[in-house]
Structures are given as structure tokens and as C-alpha cells.
Amino acid sequence: MVSRDGRRIVWDATGKGEFKLVHSWEQAKQAIRGVSERETCLDVFESCFTPTSFRLMMHDLFEPGFIQLKELAFYPSTGSEFYSALSRSGELPAGTELELLQQVDREQSLS
Q1: Which of 21, 27, 45, 54 is packed most tightly, with the most Cβ within 10 A?
Q2: Is residue 8 exposed (0-12), middle (13-18) or buried (19+ Cβ within 10 Å)?
Q3: pTM score, whole prediction
Q4: Cα–Cα nearest to 52, from 9, 2, 95, 21
């Protein structure tokens, strides 16, 4: 979860302010373990994909160990499509989570 301007977790293209990660990886893993142990639902969703939001999501699934795939190749957008090849021998995208998130914000403001 990410907040913007220290208080909002939802914003539109006019939103301004700094991004801040709300939870640590350990908190995320604990929440998912709790769901598995209690067999309950945890409402988590992504509302859209930009090239970088997809790359960030794959990074965020890899880091806590939910997937073993990393990026082998990435092909930028042509029109409304982008392509990513995934492999166990790939690499994570360059940049920190916050840098990737800022790139997502820039991509969304172009649409």
C-alpha cells in the first residue's frame, strides 16, 4: 500500500505530494500468512497497468518469495501494449520501489 501526501491511499491524475510505502515486506507477508491460516479473504487489487506498474508488481511478488520469476527481457510500449519475458535467471528491474512508483505516476499522467 502506498500513501500520497502522507494521508491519501487513493488519488487521481491531479493528485500531488510525496509517495510513502505504508507497510513493510514483513507486514505484507504476515497479512498473507494470516489469510492462509484463517482461510479468509484479503482484498488486494491493481486498478491498471502501465509498463512500469507491471514491472513493479512482478518485483513485489518476487521479493517476499511468492514467485520465482524475474525479468529476462522487457520491450517498451508500442501503442497500448508492452511485452515482458520472465525467467528464473532474469533480473529485477533497476531502481527502488519508490523510483518505480514515481515512474508509474509519470506514465499515468501521459495517458
Answers
A1: 54
A2: exposed
A3: 0.60
A4: 95
- Sequence-distant (6+) residues with CB within 8 A of 73 are 83, 84, 85, 90
Q: Which residues constitute the domain of residue 99?
A: 2-110
Closest to 87 measured CA to CA, from 104, 75, 70, 100: 70
d(CA 48, CA 12): 12
Q: Are strands 81-87 and 70-78 parallel, antiparallel or unpaired?
A: antiparallel
pLDDT tens digits, 15-35? 788 888 888 889 888 888 888
Number of domains in the chain: 1
Phi and psi at residue 35, to the nearest 5°? -60, -45
